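My hope is that you will study the protein record below before we discuss the fold together.
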Amino acid sequence: MASLPVTDGGRILTDAWDYKGRPAIRSQTGGWTSASTILVVELNERLTSLGIAVNLVTYMTGTMHLGNAVAANTVTNFLGTSFILCLLGGFIADTFLGSCVPSSDSCIPASGIQLAVLYLALYMTALGTGGLKSSVSGFGSDQFDESNPWEKNRMMKFFNYFFFLISLGSLVAVTVLVYVQDNLGRRWGYGICATSILIGLLVFLSGTRRYRFKKLVGSPLTQIFSVVVVAWRNRRLPLPSEAALLYDVGEQAKLDGRQGETKQPLPHTKQFRFLDRAAIKRGEASPPSRWRLNTLTDVEEVKMVVRMLPIWATTIMFWTVYAQMTTFSVSQATTMDRRVAGSFEIPPGSLTVFFVLSILLTVPFYDRLVVPVFRHFTGNSQGLTPLQRIGVGLVLSAMAMVAAALTEIKRQRVATTVVDPHGPVPMSVFWLIPQFLLVGSGEAFAYIGQLDFFLRECPSGMKTMSTGLFLSTLSLGFFLSSALVTIVDRVTGHGGHRSWLADDLNHGRLYDFYWLLAVLSVLNLIVYLVSARWYVYRERGESPADDGNLGVELRDAETSHHG
């Protein structure tokens, strides 16, 4: 077989280093040998984090004997912290770094010490998850050289395997691991989680000598902060009459003496002109600090991010609805008849398997049927635009809350016929499937639509930050769920009235909480439609090769959520 030509970079890579800081040698670093260890890490992390989160609400209510509202908030706060730490982890990585014993059968709430240990363990897990999610997919792509066609092809296959192993880890977590936790004991389930992540760590460390490391380029968050700070400092200065009088990349290149190494200039826009003050020149004769002066192109990139914020804000509600599937929907399942095939009983947390199934069904359905139809009528090669896909996801989430409310009304009516108040409601748990399927299908539309939007519409140098901005909608959605649960529980439980979110769901009004979420979802959808109509897609001049690179970036970012 012929060897690779010298023009592909030869033996030495110019933009990557080995673990000792030396220029990386292609044959001795990176590639599938390194990537396979990262794949194992991601499989084990997905198994561990989802294995904890998906069944946590039943642990809080059944083992720690906490109320439904407290248990739901514990889960959503844990998930919200995990995703918000992705943004922090990405900033740190880009800028600087390249269990409880089951209690007795008596329903005594956990002590302060027990809760302290539990929360410490949960938020240490969230911290680790945030750091891993923000870096693992990018580090995996670093093991392949995009300038080399042979390695670039391997990188695209890497993300296919990445997504497959994430799905595999999710399936094992919501089926096998949940079954172990509910039938063999929590200590066995959490012990498997601890062992799994330890194995992943050892496998990851075993590949240290072969990893490739890329040079740090700094965080785009710094650029945003600097533009805002400098614009505020210059708020009293008059703006020049012409944009050509503002500081831009051409003048920056002359001062730096680095012709050809700067960003491509962006055309000036008249929106958010206050930010233009960050580019007002003060007669600098040497390269200025970015905390004193920014280029107009830097300012325009920040404007792009500002224009995306209304879309960002109106997608948070979807993840608030999503949060109910891992909290109150699981609590509903614990009260219902979960028997199948005679005596086998489905663990409540395992119902989330319908998330995975609905996604696996929706994605090929969209690609094979929806895209060709809409491509024929609209001429859009993608079928639906990113904003249209998000809109479909928001509609499905509102429908899911309607279905959840109707199912809960029926469940409570059936519960009134039960003689044994401590026994299961004689109603099949499969009545809950529609709300799981609707939210899962909604995720397939909203999640991928958000990825497409945030990656395509953000500035070229802010892909990582834009992915973090997207992940923050998940985090804020979970936190909003916690806030709504707290408010509803306090307001409806005030004055001696029984809360909508009573510890005994048969005596609560969970369906009213679902109706509230349905109404909020519809109102949010209206605001979203107005924002989407106002938004104008930025002009894109990518070549076909650029579109190919974007496809890789989409796969890269897509693993961040599932990973």
In short: The mean pLDDT is 75. The chain has 17 helices and seven strands. Residues 149-183 form the longest helix (35 residues). The chain has three domains: 8-217, 220-294, 306-563.
